[in-house]
Write a structure and sequence with these properties.
The protein is mainly α and 453 residues long. It has a three-stranded antiparallel β-sheet, with no helix packed on it. Helix 7 packs across helix 10. About 22% of the residues have low confidence.
Length: 453
């Protein structure tokens, strides 16, 4: 009997326990409706277009770049870049460990504080510096923000034919950034600088790296090229890197003018010309000539070159050097940039957007070069195994173009006809397949003396 009573009490206790638990669950599920409404997330305002997925009105950033729709609102303080392949904007959260210049979104009401004369844009670049995460995220909130803010640079749309290379590997980018870091050191070790420049001379052929080099290291490259504190081999590598970065790279050419504006003439071209005039190292001068030939392709570069008496500088260098390959490079430069009408007409048609410029119409009188080039040719001996045929061809092609342009203003020297005949005989003996040299010889003879026999 007593045992039965214990079992009954235990059963009653279990039933009460279960009833209490059920009541507690029911009570939790019937909380105040007002409180439930307060806990609900705020609805996200969406933008919808026919035939297209909806997206948030306010861009939601992550740690990686995501495309920004044209009608999306970008929160202040994000890292924003222009995708030069699609033409659209991309944004992400600021990474304080990035060593390159960072594009930062500026609130619309703060645009009035951007430098006078600069086009208004949502996208500005903060030049290379250490970026504080907190200060960037609060960009546009302080009333005296511009008192200490670095200068900003407007980024216009890039040429349509430039697209990022999706095949560049992470290891190549790492190599690139490591080399740039060495280059930007205030006093890098010579061995480290040599190795860094060696890598950059190879990578700078890639347009995307070329643009980055111009943005991040142009001034440093110019400083190395123009300083006698560095060995000629280091200066040569810097000159090649600069030339490679600009070669056939309309975006990089445009970026130079965006960075320095009207100061490009004095900051970039002038140091290169002075270095060419003062330097005595043959290899370095050839590399300098290469970088100059690329730099004048910057918009208004030829006008700047003429204004700096670049033609006079080249004439002094040409007559002073006995390095025939350098003379050939100078002659080819004159032909390509000032005498080749087909190339100059293409530049006019392509316009500024392609990184080209209009024909130089003032101050580009090259008639004096007619005598300079003839003197060079007649001094070359008509002997087997002598001379430099590559540079000779370049001089002959340029001389013919000068004669065609200036006519009677480019008169033949007395020794020219005899030298041309002797050279034709020598070339025929040495190379029966040497049409590449025979043709320009015959063309120059025809231009100055009429039909050849």
């Amino acid at each position: 009997m007593q045992s039965l009573r214990r079992i009954t009490l235990l059963a009653i206790w279990i039933v009460c326990l279960l009833f209490n638990s059920a009541f507690a669950v029911s009570s939790n599920g019937n909380d105040d409706p007002g409180k439930a409404a307060d806990a609900a997330p705020t609805p996200v305002e969406m933008i919808c277009h026919p035939g297209k997925e909806c997206y948030p009105k306010v861009f939601v950033p992550t740690t990686t770049f995501l495309p920004v729709e044209a009608d999306q609102v970008i929160p202040a303080g994000l890292h924003v870049r222009l995708n030069i392949g699609s033409g659209g904007r991309e944004a992400k959260l600021i990474d304080p460990n990035e060593s390159e210049g960072t594009a930062v979104y500026v609130e619309r009401e703060k645009k009035a504080e951007i430098q006078a004369g600069m086009e208004y844009s949502d996208l500005v670049v903060v030049p290379d510096q250490d970026i504080d995460q907190g200060s960037v995220l609060n960009a546009g909130l302080s009333s005296n923000e511009t008192d200490s803010a670095p200068p900003v640079q407007h980024i216009p749309p890039e040429p349509d034919n430039y697209k990022p290379n999706p095949h560049l590997s992470n290891s190549d980018w790492e190599t690139f950034h490591n080399a740039v870091a060495v280059l930007k050191e205030s006093a890098p070790q010579a061995a480290s600088l040599i190795e860094a420049l060696r890598k950059l001379t190879e990578l700078s052929h890639e347009p995307e790296y070329g643009v980055k080099l111009i943005e991040m290291t142009l001034q440093k490259l110019i400083n190395i090229i123009s300083s006698s504190d560095y060995a000629p081999s280091i200066r040569s590598s810097a000159a090649i890197t600069l030339g490679n970065s600009l070669q056939n790279n309309a975006v990089a050419l445009s970026r130079v003018r965006k960075l320095f504006g009207t100061a490009t003439k004095d900051v970039v071209l002038h140091p290169l010309l002075v270095s060419l005039l003062k330097n005595q190292d043959k290899i370095l001068n050839r590399r300098l000539m290469f970088s100059i030939s690329r730099t004048v392709r910057i918009h208004n570069g030829k006008q700047d070159f003429v204004a700096l008496d670049g033609l006079g500088t080249l004439e002094k260098v040409y007559t002073a050097t006995n390095d025939l390959p350098l003379r050939g490079k100078i002659a080819a430069f004159l032909q390509d940039e000032f005498l080749d009408m087909e190339m100059r007409e293409m530049e006019v048609k392509s316009g500024v957007k392609g990184g080209s410029q209009s024909v130089v119409k003032v101050g580009d009188d090259l008639s004096g070069w007619c005598e300079v080039l003839q003197n060079d040719l007649v001094e070359r001996k008509n002997e087997e195994g002598t001379g430099d045929l590559d540079s000779e061809v370049k001089v002959l092609v340029t001389l013919k173009a000068l004669k065609e342009k200036y006519g009677n203003g480019c008169k033949a020297m007395p020794e020219l006809k005899g030298w041309l005949g002797g050279e034709r005989v020598r070339v025929k003996k040495e190379d029966d397949d040497g049409d590449w040299i025979k043709v320009p010889l015959e063309e120059v003879e025809h231009a100055f003396f009429g039909a050849t026999a």
